[in-house]
Design brief:
The chain is of the alpha/beta class and 312 residues long. Strand 8 and strand 9 form a beta hairpin. The chain contains twelve helices and ten strands.
């Protein structure tokens, strides 16, 4: 009788067989997304691409060596970071001209998305070589998935990258982005996250919902949605909350119609949450009130979170 482990091994072998039978053209650049924290998030297709490549261009060869060693990948590497990207592109083109398969990876997540690689991809395409994308982990998408900041009715979001380091430049930058009618996603470091949170409250308003997602896919992953004006207190309640790598999502500003949500409306939302999920509460109230479901969802999520923290 085949054991459960044996069944898994058999299925895994079928996956690898299917991968081997797929089209893996030579002289092609494979842009491969890698885990953002949890090494187990490397996809089978990404694993196969890294094994099959003749050369891996990595943002930091030392960081990437940890991933490659964990999966037993012995493909040669070279550095391709923001300080040598032009030179790296020229080197990679020579390998591609020779018919080699080249994989491009960053330290974590998707290359060329707030990471080096865009210039390499552009020059490889301009030279007439194929570029194949191996999608996978993304801090932007992971944070968005856990935030509730978008919906079927309003799926819009904008990725703004890292905020400027200096206060005046950051405030000017936030004024531009926070005026966009969509959820705004930005990265921040643990050294500046509290300052950026204070600036968001000053510019976007104390009531604007902000999702803080830190240490995504790692042991101490945390996702919380807090009104901007309460972020300073939220960080102060636990020193661990300012540690790790951060994605901040500034939810879309409430419409003028939704801005009239008052104390009575909050009490209705709170009462409904005793019997319904956050999603169903927002859906039912939107049907009765005509207010945007995403705004009601954000309010219901905020109240649900506050109630959970009070019980803890």
């Amino acid at each position: 009788m085949t054991t459960e482990s044996g069944q898994f091994d058999a299925r895994w072998q079928r996956v690898l067989h299917d991968l081997a039978s797929q089209d893996w053209p030579a002289g092609c650049l494979y842009v491969v997304a890698t885990p953002i924290g949890n090494l187990a998030d490397l996809s089978p297709r990404a694993l196969y691409a890294l094994q099959k490549a003749d050369l891996i261009a990595a943002e930091d060869t030392r960081s990437s060596r940890v991933l490659l060693n964990a999966w037993g990948i012995e493909t040669p590497m070279m550095a391709a970071h923001r300080h040598n990207e032009a030179q790296a592109a020229a080197t990679l083109l020579r390998h591609l001209d020779q018919g080699q398969r080249v994989a491009l990876i960053s330290d974590a997540g998707a290359p060329a998305v707030s990471d080096p690689g865009g210039r390499i991809v552009s020059e490889v395409r301009a030279a007439g070589h194929q570029v194949r994308v191996i999608p996978g982990p993304s801090a932007v998408i992971a944070a968005l998935m856990g935030s509730g900041a978008t919906s079927d009715e309003n799926p819009a979001f904008v990725f703004a990258g890292f905020a400027p380091h200096k206060a005046v430049a950051r405030q000017t930058w936030l004024k531009t982005w926070c005026a966009v009618p969509a959820a705004i996603i930005l990265f921040e470091s643990p050294h500046r996250v509290r300052s950026t949170a204070t600036d968001i409250a000053a510019i976007a308003g104390n009531d604007r919902p902000v999702t803080v997602a830190r240490e995504l896919t790692k042991r101490f992953e945390q996702i919380a949605t807090v009104p901007a004006g309460q972020l300073a207190d939220w960080f102060a309640q636990d020193s661990q909350r300012t540690m790790g790598e951060f994605v901040l999502i500034v939810h879309e500003a409430a419409t003028q119609e939704a801005a009239v949500l008052g104390q009575d409306a909050e009490q209705i939302v709170a009462a409904m949450l005793r019997s319904y999920s956050v999603k169903d509460t927002a859906r039912l109230l939107a049907a009765f009130s005509g207010l945007p479901r995403d705004v009601l969802y954000a309010k219901a999520l905020q109240l649900k979170q506050q109630d959970s923290e009070a019980q803890d």
